[in-house]
């Protein structure tokens, strides 16, 4: 009896060990589709996206708009998956979106229940198996076997310490033409809840060139326009040209992150001329990107072509299968889950580049009825004349025609409508990071390429100008070590994004390529730190004109472009300028000095402390010595490159 009992007891222990092995392995309930096809999107007719607080936006409308700030169902909680693996991703876009619509509010989840990636090397499946066997040998009391297993486990864990298993991930979300001055962030209630409240907001973020392609080139390379040589949106302006591909494109932050052993993902709008025949076609995949899903050409929401890792994919006008913002959401979320399953020890960089709120402003069907009672802000420089400004603003008709005002009001509403889908995108990306246990170890950066104007100085709609509404853009970051729910006032520029990403990818010790003109922002992510910071930077733009203006605008000077039916033109060949933007918060100096390359050699100077809307050009009333100092500083910044853009000191200025 004793022998039988002993045998039975051993069998019981053996089964228990086997069961333990099974329990400790990640349970995979499903995997995302790997065929690369984009499946249809869902019907969002039951969407509950909240209206934003717009009390800060002055409106010309008799209607009122409810002020709400709660995010409903914006983010799901983790379910039955403590390891961060084995998570089911919908195989179709419709399933994916529908599942996310049903998820619980992330903020309602108790803090202790939110999974996080621990700051220790993640054990691989092989090590977990060895640990299971060690438990078994302890049960059997085989000391020699236990010692052998213990030695192997220690060796395995030691080897894993050499893997970049806890290097932080990076997600850069870039919008298109999203302003800051005119309330462009007001619709983003989920961004506020998930990024602003959980991170740091920079209130003085600028683009050095207020136009899509040169600004995006600066974001990618960390260089001013005069150093990456992309000056406007045309091929002749070096936008995605073969010259760009053979030079600056080889030195983007994606290349440096890839060299630092990051897996890199891109989805969305790249550069305005990307994929065109004159730019090498859509088979060209820019270096540094492991996974590429790039829009061919400029911003669209329907009827577009993408390069899917070099393969041409066309989309039509069906919302459920073709709406670009939702496709970017689906692609990015799928890649987050797939990366976690297949590359658990490799950090990733992901850039998601939406076309919203750029024209043609096609909102998702469920958001077409939003903001219908709103009008564009009427304060500041709205519908003001440009009598003391360069010639392009002096040609604008003032007061504006009623048709122009109606047009820009409609644009204002539609821009906000398109942004609601971007707000959803942010929530679903954060959900995916949380569900895969990667949220606490991921930097999420949210920004835009340039600002926008809607009636300012009687210009209907566009960007390209040297004024605050076109230059100021949002910038928010959350992530490991980033202070929460705080703002910083130091002036930062989009040329700082590439050094920051490169710095993170290289260990966060201030290392980034010397060829970059910008500065790593990592020292500013902690509100307790007060590093010495820049007090000025360069703004530059090379006008984009046309030799064939609108037929009805023959009285206009040759070379104008982007003209409206009433012959108000937004650009011209000689709308070419360079500026020094001085923002010294310590000494309370807030200036903008600009020189134009035109027949007038026109100069504009504004004191933002007393004139925040840049209504009064004070070039003729200021001390000439100030003009001389600003001119010399402009020459220095206009010639700077790399370290000289960061090291040269601005002059001391008093007005």
How would you describe the overall organization of this protein?
The structure is a single chain. With 655 residues, this protein is α/β, with parallel strands linked by helices. The chain has helices at 2-24, 93-102, 125-140, 143-160, 189-196, 212-221, 225-228, 242-245, 253-259, 319-322, 324-342, 391-394, 402-435, 468-471, 497-505, 624-638, 643-647, and strands at residues 169-175, 200-202, 205-206, 263-269, 291-295, 305-308, 311-314, 348-353, 442-448, 453-454, 461-462, 475-478, 486-488, 492-493, 536-541, 560-563, 569-572, 577-584, 589-596, 603-607. The chain folds into three domains: 2-24 and 123-160, no CATH class; 168-360 and 377-525, Alkaline Phosphatase, subunit A (3-Layer(aba) Sandwich); 551-647, Arylsulfatase, C-terminal domain, CATH 3.30.1120. Helix content is 30%, strand content 14%. The protein has a ten-stranded mixed beta sheet with strand order 7-6-5-4-8-1-9-12-2-13, with helices on both faces. Strands 15-18-19-20 form a four-stranded antiparallel beta sheet, with helices on one face. Helix 1 runs antiparallel to helix 3 and helix 3 runs antiparallel to helix 4 (143-160). Mean pLDDT is 82; it is low at 1-48, 51-128 and 155-164.
Give the spatial strand order of the biggest sheet.
7-6-5-4-8-1-9-12-2-13
Number of separate structural domains: 3
Largest sheet: 10 strands, mixed
In CATH terms, the superfamily of the largest domain is Alkaline Phosphatase, subunit A
Question: Percentage of helical residues?
Answer: 25-40%
Shape: globular
For the record, give the distance between the C-alpha atoms at the N and C termini, rounded to a whole number. Answer: 103 Å
Question: SS-based structural class?
Answer: alpha/beta
- The number of helical elements comes to 17
How is the CATH topology of the largest domain named? Alkaline Phosphatase, subunit A
Radius of gyration: 27 Å
| Beta-strand content | 5-15%
* Mean pLDDT over the residues: 82
What is the CATH architecture term of the largest domain? 3-Layer(aba) Sandwich
Overall number of strands: 20
CATH class of the largest domain: Alpha Beta
Give the low-confidence spans. 1-48, 51-128, 155-164
